[in-house]
Amino acid sequence: MAKKKNQQTRTKLEEINDSLSGIEQKFEQHKNLIYIIVAAILVIALGFWAYYNFGYKKQEESAQKEIAQADELYKNSQQMLQGMAADSASMAYATTLQDSALKVYEGVAKKYGNNLIFKNGVGNLAKFYAAQILYTQGKNKEAQQYLEDYSPKGKTVGPMSQVLLGDSYVNQDQFDNAIKAYDNAIDMAQDSFWERLTWREVVLFLLALAALAGIIFYARKKDDAKTRSWALICLAIIFLASAGYLAYRLINQKGFENRSLIPYAMQKKATVLDAQQKYDEEIKIYEEIEAKYYGPGSMSMQIERANAKKGK
Question: Domain range holding 205?
Answer without folding.
Answer: 195-251
